[in-house]
Amino acid sequence: MKSLIDIHVVLATPDDMDVWDEQAEDAADRINDILHCLYDKVDEDIDSHQLEKMLHHVWESWREDRYLLDIDEEELIDWVDHLLATWDDEHLHTDSE
What we know:
mainly alpha
């Protein structure tokens, strides 16, 4: 269940975004926007393990992505919507892990 996951535990700090040098604070803010968007959009009854995987996927996908600071709010929402729409199909094989 979604309520079992504390979103604040997975949020980025500028120290987490060290690859961004002087833009680390902006990068942390942006990845946190994506994490919050995902968390807000998932169903309340999502399996907590699946939500953890999704949040980890956001980190893996965006932490060093050179477009992180260029993505606008609409594109961010579209990316999250796409992730939610395709997650089961793309990640079904990892459920047994």
